[in-house]
Design goal:
InterPro entries: Alpha/beta_knot_MTases, Ribosomal_eL30-like_sf, rRNA_Methyltransferase, SpoU_MeTrfase, tRNA_m1G_MTases_N. The protein is of the alpha/beta class. It has twelve helices and twelve strands. The protein has two domains: 3-106, Ribosomal protein L30/S12 (60s Ribosomal Protein L30, Chain: A), CATH 3.30.1330; 113-271, SPOUT methyltransferase, trefoil knot domain (Alpha/beta knot). Helix 7 (132-144) links the parallel strand 6 (122-126) and strand 7.
Length: 275
């Protein structure tokens, strides 16, 4: 049974993952194999547990111990459960707990690109998307609209960033994903070459004179397709577009030049999901 620990001040051992460590520090935790991330809300935490992820500790408003977090506590086994009033927790963490419950969890073992892509037909590749909200929204769309996996380039926001996890509503635990390369020179080459060796045609979502419409029949006919989405503002790098098999555009009306990358991803995933 979990041990309930009353929180009174910042010096309480075990609270540093919630109060003092940056996202980068959470990822490495001095040693990569000890990296953690934070999941927020009973629904998201439950999805992570369903995916087999390991909880380290819980932090919650005291009223949730016998309330909405009761089932989560029961599932987490003998881990510390830190509890306090809502106003104190906001002071400790620096933000209001949207659903009153946080869980520190072990980062999952990283997977290789070949492992993640094995047997997949439709995948998304995210190039240098740095906004955590966009990453979370794209993962949610990927889960809902038929993407089999997601690959992120080294310049992307970490999909296990606290905000990305929350915005995705736990989809980051449902869609297989991994990094395509560990350093910036790994993308677009040799990353795109590795996808092509795995049998994927690559479709760069980009506005250009050479683009085909998103409803082009040949896109639907591709057995394996990787949909490549670019960073906020500038979009995909020119060398990425040049290296892809297709350049694909979403037709716009009313002089709108483009959609936010999260909105564009939802349109692209639905249209290109395959039959």
């Amino acid at each position: 049974m979990s041990k309930i620990i009353e929180v009174t001040d910042l010096s309480l051992p075990g609270l540093e993952v919630y109060t003092r460590l940056t996202e980068a520090q959470l990822r490495s935790r001095l040693e990569p194999e000890k990296g953690v991330f934070i999941a927020e809300s009973p629904k998201v935490i439950g999805t992570a547990l369903d995916a087999g992820l390991e909880p380290v500790s819980l932090l919650m408003e005291r009223r949730h111990v016998e309330g909405q977090a009761r089932g989560i506590i029961a599932r987490c086994g003998e881990i510390p459960v830190y509890a306090a009033g809502g106003s104190l927790l906001e002071g400790l963490t620096g933000y209001r707990l949207t659903r009153g419950v946080l869980c520190a969890m072990r980062r999952p073992r990283p997977h290789g690109v070949e492992e993640v892509c094995a047997g997949k037909r439709r995948i998304a590749v995210l190039e240098n998307i740095v906004d955590a909200t966009n990453i979370g929204a794209i993962f949610r769309s990927a889960a809902a609209l038929g993407m089999d996996a997601v690959l992120v380039t080294p310049g992307c926001c970490d999909p296990l960033n606290r905000r990305a996890v929350r915005v995705s509503m736990g989809a980051v635990f449902q869609v297989p994903w991994t990094c395509i390369g560990s350093e910036s020179p790994d993308w677009p080459q040799p990353g795109i070459l590795s996808l092509q060796r795995l049998g994927f045609k690559t479709a760069a979502m980009a506005l250009s004179d050479a683009s085909v419409g998103i409803d082009a029949p040949q896109l639907q006919e591709e057995e394996k397709l990787a949909i490549v989405l670019g960073a906020e503002g500038d979009g995909l790098a020119p060398r990425t577009i040049a290296a892809c098999d297709y350049s694909v555009r979403i037709p716009m009306s009313h002089n709108v030049d483009s959609l936010n990358v999260a909105a564009a991803s939802a349109v692209a995933f639905w249209q290109l999901r395959g039959r």
